[in-house]
Amino acid sequence: MIVASVMLWFASLSAYCCSKQQTLFEKPVGKLPGWSVFSLLLFFAILFMLGTYDLATSLFVALAFVMAAWIAIILIRGHYQHSLLSMLISGALVSIFIFGLGAA
């Protein structure tokens, strides 16, 4: 589950980097590479979650996490101007912590 949560955070950040409104880079990442990375990471995260949950639950958990991550990214970037590396690390740590609380 920890690996899946980190993958979902990276996938959400990858999709955010494709947006014209993103503020991490001067120019947004291309839509094809950004959404391809998102799709691959989402697929592998769901595969990792299948070890713990059934398919329907894994899909709903992934969908809920991605929606919450997108909201969190927008709120964080609106108030703080962190670098990409800082966003990757802090988001991954928060994801691990939240999934760890849910698994306990």
General description of the model:
With about 100 residues, the chain is mainly alpha-helical. The chain has one domain (about 1-104). About 75% of the residues lie in helices and about 0% in strands. It is built from four helices and no strands. Helix 1 crosses helix 3, helix 1 runs antiparallel to helix 4 (about 85-104) and helix 2 crosses helix 3. The relative contact order is 0.20. The model has no long low-confidence stretch (mean pLDDT about 85).
| Number of helical elements | 4
Number of domains: 1
Radius of gyration, Cα only, in angstroms?
13 Å
> Which percent range describes the beta-strand content?
under 5%
Kindly state the number of beta strands: 0
Helix content: over 70%
Give the distance, in angstroms, between the N- and C-terminal Cα atoms: 12 Å
Shape: globular
Short description:
With 104 residues, the chain is mainly alpha-helical. The chain has one domain (2-103). The protein has helices spanning 2-16, 31-49, 55-79, 84-103.
Layout: helices, strands, pairs:
Layout: H1 2-16, H2 31-49, H3 55-79, H4 84-103
Helix pairs in contact: 1-2, 1-3, 1-4, 2-3
What key attributes describe this structure?
4 helices; 76% helix; 104 residues; mainly alpha
